[in-house]
Design a protein that fits this description.
The chain is about 45% helix and about 10% strand. With about 300 residues, it is an alpha/beta fold.
Amino acid sequence: MAPISTPQTPFGRVLTAMITPFTADGDLDLDGAQQLAVHLVDAGNDGLIINGTTGESPTTTDAEKNDLVRAVLEAVGDRAHVVAGIGTNDTRHTLELARQAERTGAHGLLAVTPYYSKPPQEGLFRHFTAIADATELPVMLYDIPGRSGVPIETETLVRLAEHPRIVANKDAKGDLGSASWAIARSGLAWYSGDDMLNLPLLSVGAVGFVSVVSHVVSPDLRAMLEAHLDGDVQKAAEIHQKLLPIFTGMFRTQGVMTTKAALALQGLPAGPLRLPLIGLTDEETAQLKIDLAAGGVQL
């Protein structure tokens, strides 16, 4: 049974876009994935995104993706939303992944804008509609034009929100004005997909976060969210400012690389990366330690 959700918070409020642990020889580490999932839920996450970009989805097979969803469901599926990333730039392949995730028991789907192809808005509308029609699962859109090359424009979001299974958007557009209009007009549950903008997006109507830095500071993010919901603006701002070194440090270079390094520093499952991603240099690791310590992370 999926965890309790509401129309306002269909996937909870604090979610981690989880890395995919690998063994030393580069194979899938399912035991590590389960251990990490339990750690993250214990730390305050309502949900986990599996097989997103932070999970190195471009370099995992369909079978590996399925095994990951199954393993995480077994570990935490009774107390957290397990959302499967299924987005590709091939609609037919995306639909196959969506149906696979539904059969395995995922609680929802994360669908990123098709990347590289740069489709027009009507192509995006048809792509996302096909995903929503393919299963009975709720869908979170993922708008990240810096990687996909194409934004989901407000008018398209408003049209997509009319579909009963398109219920949320992960916003990594970095445009508070655009987000304000889209939240007001679409009614979609809005999740920050840019950690530096977690608190600002809450202020214009977001309901929560899909975070990367939550791998290391989930309790702080939960505290900031609860302070905001309680109307304690000063406390929320203080937590936001405390976390600034983390928000900056975790993205000095590629975020998956720094996240796996940070987890390894804490003795948590991570393992190596698959090419074209690579491990941090000694200098980058040293800087990461400084950034984490400045944000209050104990190593």
